[in-house]
Design a protein that fits this description.
Distance between the termini: 23 Å
Mean pLDDT: 95
Strand order of the largest sheet: 1-2-3-7-6
Order of helices and strands: HHHEHHEHEEEHHEHEH
Strand content: 5-15%
Structural class: alpha/beta
Number of helices: 10
Radius of gyration: 17 Å
Oligomer: single chain
Helix content: 25-40%
Number of strands: 7
């Protein structure tokens, strides 16, 4: 997939996220918008998993540790053909397939149920270690929020992965600088963030998480170092793409009303 196609896919992901959170009157719109380019590049070719291979033991795995951002994950899976797009219409409704946090029984392509923050990396470590011991070539990707990196369980897993030489493990941190009730720097500062990953033994890079070309190059170059897990610190903007949502704590929990949905869709190129 070319960069222009990644950008178009990211735009469609954002449009779905707006509609889904509006229709469901649900939270976590901003966190879905911040990782649209990350998901577009991962599912646009970096991840070796397709609808045809989703049950293969050799497929790459992705664990969305920030499970509350699942609207964006559901959106990209639907766009890539893992399930029908009309499943998105009933997101977070009573009795619907797609729950408000990532749920592995809900749809093809959801590897793990997540939402209790701080656990996705530990699970991904186990999956990567199993792959090593079984002699398989698959890789395990996990997308973390910056807010959950305030939790000790993340750093226990961060110690575990280099100790076991898990170079088939890739962390992507959606570093949008805002968590549920405030900016990360005010709640519990992570800086120097990339230096911490390096100090824990990870081969680490930083980039603009909305630059699809840079993301594509970084994810084509894995592992960054043989024998070490890879970490990509992706600097992003919460609410990216919608001017009145960008870098605003409000949109962690608030859902767009009718007028805000129309404004947001207009900024993304219209209602079509």
């Amino acid at each position: 997939m070319e960069s222009s196609e990644h950008q178009q896919l990211a735009r469609r992901i954002r449009r779905h996220v707006l509609r889904m959170t509006h229709d469901a009157r649900s939270s976590h719109c901003g966190t879905g918008l911040s990782m649209a380019e990350i998901l577009a590049v991962v599912y646009g070719g970096a991840l070796r998993c397709t609808p045809a291979t989703v049950e293969s033991p050799e497929r790459d795995r992705l664990v969305l540790s920030k499970g509350h951002g699942c609207a964006a994950l559901y959106a990209v899976l639907a766009e890539r053909g893992f399930f029908p797009r009309d499943w998105l219409d009933s997101f977070y409704q009573d009795g619907a397939r797609l729950a408000g946090h990532a749920t592995h029984t809900s749809a093809p392509g959801i590897e793990v149920s997540t939402g209790s923050l701080g656990h996705g990396l530990g699970i991904a470590c186990g999956m990567a270690l199993a792959g090593k011991r079984d002699g398989r070539d698959y890789r395990v990707f996990t997308i973390l929020s910056d807010g959950e990196c305030d939790e000790g369980s993340i750093w226990e897993a961060a110690l575990f992965a280099p100790h076991h030489g898990l170079d088939n493990l890739v962390v992507i941190v959606d570093y949008n600088k805002i968590q549920s009730l405030g900016h990360v720097r005010d709640v519990l500062d992570l800086e120097p963030f990339a230096a911490k990953w390096r100090a824990f033994g990870w081969s680490t890079r930083e980039l603009d998480g909305h630059d699809v070309a840079a993301l594509g190059s970084a994810l084509a170059d894995l592992p960054y170092e043989t024998g070490r897990p890879s970490c990509l610190v992706a600097h992003t903007v919460k609410g990216k793409g919608i001017s009145f949502m960008e870098d605003t704590v409000l949109w962690h929990y608030r859902s767009p009303n009718d007028d805000e949905l129309a404004l947001g869709l207009a900024e993304l190129g219209g209602a079509g």
